[in-house]
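Inputs:
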Amino acid sequence: MSELLVKEKQVTVPGEVLAEGMDYLPGNNTYREGEKIFSSKLGLASVDGRAIKLIPLSGKYLPKEGDTIIAEVIDILMSGWRVDTGSAYSAMLNMKEATSEFIQKGADLTKYYDFGDHIVCKITQVTSQMLIDVSMRGPGLRKLTGGRIIRANPNKVPRIIGKKGSMVSMIKDATGCRITVGQNGVIWLQGEDPNMELLAVKTMRKIESESHISGLTDRIKSFLEKETGKKISAKEGEKNDVR
Amino acid sequence: MTYDKRLDGRKADETRPIEAKVGVVKNADGSAMFKIGSTVAYAAVYGPREMYPRFQQNPQKGVLRCNYNMMPFSGHGNRVRPGPNRRSKEIGMVTEKALLPVIDLSKFPNAVVDVFIELPQTDAGTRCAGICAASMALADAGIIMKDLVASVAVGSVDHSIIADLNYDEEAYEDGPVADIPVAILPNSGKVTLLQMDGELSREELKKSLELSKKVCKDIYEVQKKALKAKFEVESK
């Protein structure tokens, strides 16, 4: 006899028993010991058929190949730049991957990216020892000038973006800001009106702290409507923001 | 004469009132407060992050580094000299060893998870309060953990077995006193910290350990509740 001991979207702590019996399978952030499935992180339980997985609520960013992130230049080396990814490991941006221009041998690399510059880049490779390579070649990858940087919980990035970018485009429409969200939780935003910029920041903080409660999209929509006094039209597929 | 009536009127197996809170240090990756009677422990977790000094890096898995500190004004009247000392180094080490069996840092080679335990107010049982706070803070920081760690000091004062000694009981003068800090993984019942200071018989030790299991279960419930409460507060 197998028994499920948690409800969907219930907050679980490490070591909490999620299910008993062999009919359930341990998914992400869970483990099996004997007949029982335990949680191994602080997170929200989610049952998908027979598999039980856990959506983490906290934790640092873990670099993954193919992620687009916003990184900060922390060092300039012989062959490129070292950038801070917001995780425990810094990444390497090679000169070859940096621009489409030709960079002269011995050129001053600060002309391209200086210390403290933020760049939108893509992770091309992550080794088992967590050596990371990033690239600037690709659509939307650029150096960020102006605007402001905020840091959010990387586990909440899918919520901030929403299904197919619905949430972030709603904030963009309501506030008129330009927004780029990195998978590492670093967010860049720039708006004509400073008040709107602040509103966008406030909205994202709200998403961050309330994303584990259902009905998020509706709440954010009414919040934005109240703050801006504009009517916002909801797009398709926005209702269910569980992923 | 036996010690059948405790100095503060508690039952033999009763702990001091416990309070726990998660997310008390906003800048940290994870943090928690654990208060038992008038012993207060704060734990803040930073990381996984790059490890310095570099020679301490482990290329096979991440390192856990615990720092235990009693604040100068925390004790019983006398100023505690600030800075690391023999005692705080030892307690930092045993805390590390009490927590390591539950945490999995294999995904973080060359990185470190820093745990800072600060005690603004102490009344015996500090290492146990520190471990309880640290395990909650680690969970809050999103570290992969098999279980939480619950910890309590049990002991015998003049041959009666009691739970959660306070300072006056530890300093009891009319009979032998033994103080046993224990850390237990609530799910498996495994012991990750066991120290003893004082004198007691084999029988008394056995009884104390039985008692500690029961008390740790109760502490675990408090820890669990505190971790979940963080997300209930935010929903309001």
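Residues 236-243 of chain A have pLDDT under 50 and may be disordered. Flag for discussion at group meeting.
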